[in-house]
Amino acid sequence: EISPVHEWSEPRLKEGQRYVGLAATDGGVYSCTSNGALRYTKLNSDGEEPTSSLATLPMRLCEWRLSSDARTFAYGGDEVELSLWDTEKAFSTKITPPEPAPADSKKRKRSDQLLPGELWRAKNLPNDHLSLRQPVHNTALTYLQPSTSVAHQHLLVGTANGSVRRYDTRAARRPVADWKGVGKTGGISTVEKGLHEHEVFVADRGSTLAALDLRNGRTIYSYKGLAGAVTSVAPTGSLMASAAQDRFVRLHSTFAPPAESGQQQEHKGEVLDKLYVKVTPTVIVWDGVSPNALGSFEEAEGEDEVWDQMQAVESDSEDEGKSSRRKEKKPRST
């Protein structure tokens, strides 16, 4: 039976707002809401009540992610540019978040100044062919690889217009790659780095889930048979799990991108199995246990059960000998 160990609430979460990020570390839990309420909850031992540290980020957030080493986090949202922060400084400095970018150019120029604890902030794309400002609406993001420098990160972002953009914080404030039209319906809902090199998984708000090649942004393969928008994926190597709004949790096969960029993909991922759940799943995670290791453990455990159920050889052979002697003495019927 599963029972809660610690429980707390976020009083700054207002009606109509939601959680956009949640991450657990060895020391505690980070949470972030769409109105910028960032919290670090330290889980104390010996049954003591958890303690919290608070910080305030800009409003209208759509996605918040913590790096693998917890030294940095990134966020983006509706008229909120992709931003990279130092985790420790975010909680140690009082932050007054700016309002969403207004139309006035002078105010936008002042808002380009980094906030205390902010390491880097993206810059909007150039105006379109009609000289109109392009709207900013980042809906999904992920870290692409670990980094030894907190200020140098590779990030991938999905937008409401279906584009996927790659950022290198050391190279430029604008994306180093902008792949348009990846999301077919309703914009990008989730992006997740795969465990193979140059592999990333992208889902839109329709029924598209695809593997992309990070070298050129091309779709390697798409999964068929999905009836609802995928809200979360969890790659595990040769397998991947997904949660979708059609109330199915699916298990997929995955294959590494081709060795050379632009080559044809020989093997394509498929849906291997699916499980219907009573409520709509929103998030799915991998516990870090390798499927191969789990199979070996279950196989070994099954072998132990078989041996435990077997009887001793001596007693079986003795009984068989007595039974055979009785059969030999029985006269043949005529």
Automatic annotation (TrEMBL):
GO cellular component labels: nucleolus; preribosome, large subunit precursor
Gene3D superfamilies from the UniProt entry: YVTN repeat-like/Quinoprotein amine dehydrogenase
InterPro entries in alphabetical order: WD40/YVTN_repeat-like_dom_sf (IPR015943), WD40_repeat_dom_sf (IPR036322), WDR74/Nsa1 (IPR037379)
Superkingdom, natural source: Eukaryota
Region ranges (Disordered): 310-334
PANTHER family from the UniProt entry: NOP SEVEN ASSOCIATED PROTEIN 1, WD REPEAT-CONTAINING PROTEIN 74
Family label: Belongs to the NSA1 family.
Subunit structure: Component of the pre-66S ribosomal particle.
Protein purpose: Involved in the biogenesis of the 60S ribosomal subunit.
Protein name per the record: Ribosome biogenesis protein NSA1
Organism: Trametes coccinea (strain BRFM310)
Upper taxonomic lineage: Eukaryota, Fungi, Dikarya, Basidiomycota, Agaricomycotina
